[in-house]
Amino acid sequence: MTSQGLQATAKAMVAKGKGILAMDESNPTCGRRFKKPGIENTIENRRAWRELLLTTPRLADYISGAILYDETIRQATSDGIPFPQYMGQCGIIPGIKVDTGAKDLTGFPGEKVTEGLDGLRERLAEYKGMGARFAKWRAVITIGKGIPTRACIHANAHALARYAALCQEAGIVPIVEPEVLIDGDHTIDRCYEVSSDTLRAVFAEIEEQRVLLEGMVLKPSMVISGLDCPQQARVKEVAEKTVECLLKNLPENLAGVAFLSGGQSNELATAHLNAMNTMYRGLPWPLTFSYARALQQPALEGWRGEKANVTAAQKRLYHRAKLNGAASLGQYSEAMEREAP
Asked: Which domains does the chain have, with CATH numbers?
């Protein structure tokens, strides 16, 4: 794919009123999600769940692309159509998670570095042949006593940049995801400080690795209070701090920003995104969503692994996608939550 092709795909991923469905959970993570509604974690149940998501009628109204897991990109609908092919027919861009997970960072207790660069060039070529047009790599930054360290931030920033460069070499748009975890009792101001340090390091490495900014999408966490912080920031403050952090650290020619939900409730993730797009007009880049649980959870709870519940579950997913599509335009309201799916 040429640089023009990369730019066109990145632009389509953050198209007006649309966002990205993250459905790239690993098999163990999928199992944890299945446990609460009592669904057995089998390969067929995972396939059926991913089929339910992707075959939701008119999903492309509000979803531009979906991030798949290695197992999923090799699977097909019950009619035998490979998932990437089916997505293309529906107007949803196929994406793929390519990192191999966050592992302990040697010498730095409590910190992680994401691995997966070994053999990535060859894996990207394979995924490209399967129909993937974009990829995702997630780094995790933990806030705690004495952490994150500069070493952790820079190790992850460098890996993200190398991954992004390899993606673009393969003609694949990289989603760069430096997630500052919500776990902890830190204040929103501490989250702002760490988020700013992380984004500054990431984009310094992105520049060093000659990544085409117009051909990549950033998937950051929002600047938010830690889950255990006794003083939880209000929606307006989260919007203000997050946009301020982005304006301080992001280059203007970035294709777009698609936030992760990162453990927020469905409603808060939507409200925060909406507040940003309501309060700030004329930003250099579109602000949209790339949610996993905050899109999937209502549908999963409605499905419960039963074929008879598929249609009702799909209506729940479509409704949640619609609300987030509205939030990406600054047109969401709490009253919309009460609309029938």
From this structure: 3-338 (3.20.20.70)
